[in-house]
Design goal:
By secondary structure, this protein is of the alpha+beta class. Helix content is about 30%, strand content about 10%.
Length: about 80
């Protein structure tokens, strides 16, 4: 499993990060008959494309405004 913080650049399929993940997955598949990576968890405070849409693979979005309303964070 790979855990990635600051994952707001993962939308670029040709980024060095994504190339590295593909290489890691390929190597794990080569070494283990059961397969490659079990999971990749990406965390970011900005899960959006440059035009504002959420990344299509976003599982949950908790906006800062809601966190302020809920008392989880202080008002900036």
């Amino acid at each position: 499993m790979v855990v990635n913080d600051e994952a707001h650049h993962t939308h670029d399929e040709e980024s060095e990060w994504n190339r590295g993940i593909r290489r890691l997955n390929d190597e794990l598949q080569r070494r283990r008959p059961a397969g490659g990576l079990a999971a990749q968890l990406d965390f970011t405070a900005t899960p959006r494309y440059s035009k504002g849409a959420l990344f299509t693979w976003t599982v949950y979005d908790y906006p800062l405004k809601q966190a302020i309303i809920d008392g989880i964070v202080k008002r900036p």
